[in-house]
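Supplementary Text 2. Reproducibility record for the structural model of the 443-residue chain.

All settings were left at their defaults, and a single model was retained for analysis rather than an ensemble. We include the record here because the model underlies the residue-level annotations in Supplementary Table 4.
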Amino acid sequence: MALSGLDIYKLLPKTNCRECGFATCLAFAMALAKKTVGIDKCRYLSEDSKNVLEASSQPPIKLITLGAGDDKLEIGNETVMFRHEEKFHHPCGLGFIIEDKLPDAQIKASLEKINKLRFERIGQQLNVNLIAIKQNSDTKRFVEAVKLIANNSNLGLVLISQDTKALKEALEFLAIKKPLIYSANKENLESIAALCKDYKTAVVVSAPSLEAVSSLTQELSKLGVSDLVLDTGNKSITEKIWDLTQIRRLALKKSNRALGYPAITMIDNDDPYQEAMEAATYICKYAGIILLKSIEAGEILSLLTLRQNIYTDPQKPLQIEPKVYPIGQVTDKSPVLVTTNFSLSYYTVLGEVEASKIPSYIVSIDTEGMSVLTAWAAEKFTPEKITSSLNKFGVKDTVKHNQLIIPGYVAVMSGDLEEQSGWSIVVGPKEAAGIPSFLKNMQ
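Retained model, structure tokens:
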């Protein structure tokens, strides 16, 4: 559990030597509590104090990294139960289960679909993270399937097998990709632990209850394996949510180190609608990895969108850079529309302007990430602010006309804006969906 500044101060030598760069040991303790400085700055810490401080500085939920390169996945290291308390830091990983018994052609077809599951939404790239290879055949076929998938995808891999020999052969060429082994249980604990140590891989700890999982994680820690992911098995949604919530609560609120790891869920449901609803539930409560069967783009986009919303900082709305954005082959006669720098507002307007096929300029005003009506109510989207931005961005030098289109919801400001800016104000539609016909009628 994190220590307060005063708790840390009690562990310091209290010499006020200033060698750490701070005037007093108390000031250094406060900086340590805020995690703006490391304990290595103090040369006079006793070993006991150093051990206590190092233990307290560890995150309550360990950060686990899977995969490598640009497609690596980081899960864990969360600090709160509810996103409004601060935010959730590491989005849960979404992956797909592929069985090794499938023909190569079918596996390749699945990989092609998975590799295309990349989307852009409000300026952010959304993509899936993992491919799980499940062993249903002999060692040779499992290794062949692993090689086939590894050679045709850069996503992180999960090796689902209880065959230690098959896992070892797969890890011989796969260790550099930092795969996840599924899974260690009370029967194979020592053999799986040896593999994890030899190849420096993370492993899923699987048991039907939190008490059994906790016992296994402690045994693995004693064996020198610390990169762990927790699994309480195939259960009903209600039971699974209970397990996921208790794992999170015990780690964060009770400082239970034995459960201080991210959790994985595998959804075994052939109905894609039920699968999507179950996955959505686990995204909200509190899975670190979710493995699916379906590879349908519509289902995955909905889950990626939900994940994006859940893992967006609620205290800091998504924003774009305030400036003038030319859309299409613009000229000095192109229309000029104004909106806020809230990402969703901007990209909604952008989509409708593109749909109109009329090249236009969109002026994004800095409203600290607020939408049009919210910014207007908070006095962030005012005639003064818009006029200042128009002048700052040199919009008058960009076009030869003086018409400015504003959102219909803020028509009330048109008179003041026209007077202050010198532009001829045109009140546009209230809803972005009306922009294409509006622009065509203007033409």
